[in-house]
Design goal:
Oxidized Rhodanese, domain 1, Thiosulphate_STrfase_CS, alpha/beta, globular, Ferritin, GlpE_sulfurtransferase, single chain, Rhodanese-like domain-containing protein, 2 domains, 274 residues
Length: 274
Amino acid sequence: MSTITQMTPDEARKFMEGSKPDSYTLLDVRQEVEYEQDHIPGARLVPLSELPDRFDELDKERPLLVYCASGGRSMAAAGLLQGQGFEDVNNLVGGISAWEGEGAFGPMELGMIAFTGAESPAEVILKAYAMENVLQVFYVQRADMAETTERIELFMRLAGFEDKHKDVLYELYTRTAEEVMSRDEFEEMALRNASDMAEGGVPVSEFMDRFPGAFDDDRGVLELASMVEAQALDYYLRCALRAESDDTRNVLQLLAREEKAHLKLLGKFMDKRD
């Protein structure tokens, strides 16, 4: 993601003032209710939760300036767009909050884990299972720290999504592995080399340490979850392009479809809380 240009509000204003309105796309990736409350004039709305199904609505020949509330979801969206062949992608640092002069966080970069292209389907599934587990544990820990029943239910529901995804991964493993292990053996092997990385390679604890307070309320939790799911989708799509075998590519494409479904569901959750 290093080639994504990070624009401060001042830089973004200079870019927009020096460009013809139809020569670039100003893309708002928040939810519709957020857009209706306030948006940068001229912005086109394509929520992050819908973006994977709407790539073809955007012109790859035009520069893209992407923004959200604070710069996190837009950075995830920028990565997705870049992975789909959009070459001139720019992220508004701090989002509309910084644009309007409010306090803002720096660029919310999400690192990706290594993928050589030579991994077998079983290796891909084991790695994906470990990443799902890290995110599930994170949600459960947050539920333990929550102070309201509603917030506990939110975190546990998010953890439940990851649990279902882990079930899918094990079932997929049983269909692709030459020698099938029991669920317990499979999980032990998957978690043996796991680190503090969630789906798509997001270092959850480090990320939360870097941006304390950014994701404190329920909407912030859902924004963080959306960023991680979008990162995972981007990761699996990019890996599928590099996969050296059809079997591995098919597994990665299936995982990408799972993440896309999760992303849409999170968008619906955010709408319900506005």
